[in-house]
Design brief:
The structure holds 2 protein chains of 2 kinds. Chain A is α+β, with helices and mostly antiparallel strands. Chain A has 2 helices and 10 strands. In chain A, the strands form 2 sheets. Chain A has a 5-stranded mixed sheet, with no helix packed on it. A 5-stranded antiparallel sheet of chain A has the order 3-2-6-7-10. The radius of gyration of chain A is 22 Å and the shape is elongated. The relative contact order of chain A is 0.18. In chain B, helix 2 packs antiparallel against helix 5, helix 3 packs antiparallel against helix 5 and helix 5 crosses helix 6. Classes of the chains: A alpha+beta, B mainly alpha. Chains A and B meet through strand 2, strand 4, strand 6, helix 1 and strand 10 of A and helix 1 and helix 2 of B.
């Protein structure tokens, strides 16, 4: 068993990184400085690390959740976590820890943008950078657009409904 | 062959093999250098592939596996934040409702100011100014009925803020310390306001 310490720095307030080591999701903990940390025990000398961004809009029951948030926050007025950015990141590194008992990998994320390098990596192990990019997630973009229309329709529909109720019940 | 002759031949072989060994060493060093340059080239190729992949995936989508528990925590913290915002709003509404008993007083002060300020000529300038005075008892009775509502609103505020605190505390990675402090302050204020309103209502016999 070899212990790997993984640190992710420069994570924004609304940024939820996910880390997979050889396809298995690793639990991350936030430290006192607002950076994410994980300690992973690995059997192999060489393994892959994949870091990506989790967006709530890509999770299961996303539509129902979004509508629920919209309604409970009074047409989104009191919702502080509106999803506006469809930028995702895909970082894929191969790490070689042969002839070592443990190691440390530190990732410093660059600011969110539609394309370009996602992070800078520093490590005391041998690292091969397979993928390191920011990109626009088309599915997320489509969903954000769809939600915008649905929310608009709900807002207009409820305003018309309220006006109808006001006219017939309160005045009439 | 005698032993001496054999030894001499060996020495001769060693003398011949030393430059050969050096050549071999140099060759191996050259080979290693070649391998390093090759590896560098491979790395360059890899980076080239990465840039090509960036272009190809720049409009794609990647399926991310995320623990279900974590998704639940994110959901609860998101809901907690919305409830926290609503609790701030309801605290403001509750306090405004409670202090609405000032409205008839303010209205009365305005009428007195207008009457004294214009030395009574306001009655001549505004023909129905007397009706303005007649509105005062109506306003007082209407406003008086809103004060018990403020108790319910403030109660709801304390409940909302407590629920939002619990929901936000679930998600250790996503919670905001500043927001939690604000929610605690809202909860404390709403409970205090509840006591004040309740004691006032008792005093008014409502």
């Amino acid at each position: 068993m070899k212990a790997l310490t993984l640190k992710i720095k420069g994570v924004g307030k609304r940024f939820r990184p996910t880390v997979e080591v050889d396809g298995k999701v690793v639990g991350l903990k936030k430290n006192q400085f607002g950076n994410f940390e994980a300690r992973v025990n690995v059997d192999k000398d060489k393994f892959d690390i994949r870091i990506s961004r989790f967006l709530e809009i890509n999770s299961r029951l996303w539509f129902l959740k979004a509508i629920f948030y919209f309604l409970i926050s009074i047409f989104g007025i009191f919702d502080s976590r509106k999803e506006k950015s469809s930028v995702a990141l895909d970082c894929h590194f191969s790490i070689d820890m042969s002839s070592r008992d443990g190691g440390m990998v530190e990732l410093k994320l660059n600011s969110l943008r539609t394309q370009g390098r996602a992070c800078e990596i520093t490590s005391d192990c041998a690292v091969i950078e397979n993928k390191n990019e920011y990109f626009v997630d088309l599915r997320t973009k489509k969903r954000i657009k769809l939600l915008r229309w649905v929310k608009f329709l709900i807002f207009v529909g409820s305003m018309v409904g309220l006006a109808f109720i006001f006219k017939n019940v309160v005045i009439g | 062959m005698s032993d001496l002759q054999q030894n001499e031949e060996r020495k001769g072989e060693e003398i011949v093999s030393q430059p050969l060994q050096e050549e071999v060493k140099q060759e191996t060093l050259k080979e290693e250098a070649k391998q390093v340059t090759l590896q560098e080239n491979i790395f360059e190729r890899q980076t080239l592939v990465v840039t090509q992949e960036v272009k190809s995936t720049s409009s794609g989508h990647i399926d991310i596996s995320f623990p279900t528990g974590e998704i639940g925590k994110i959901f609860s913290s998101h809901l907690g934040e919305i409830l926290s915002n609503l609790s701030i709003l309801s605290l403001i509404v509750g306090i405004c409702l409670f202090f609405s008993f000032f409205i008839p007083v303010l209205y009365f002060c305005l009428l007195v100011f207008l009457t004294l300020g214009t030395l009574g000529s306001v009655f001549a300038l505004i023909p129905n100014f007397g009706e303005w005075w007649a509105l005062l008892p109506k306003l007082s009775s209407t406003i008086g009925s809103t004060i018990p509502i403020s108790l319910w609103v403030l109660g709801a505020t304390s409940l909302l803020s407590l629920v939002s605190l619990i929901l936000m505390a679930v998600d250790k990675n996503g919670r905001s310390r500043g927001r939690m402090i604000v929610t605690v302050i809202v909860a404390v204020l709403s409970v205090l306001a509840c006591f004040i309103v309740y004691s006032n209502l008792g005093g008014m016999g409502l």
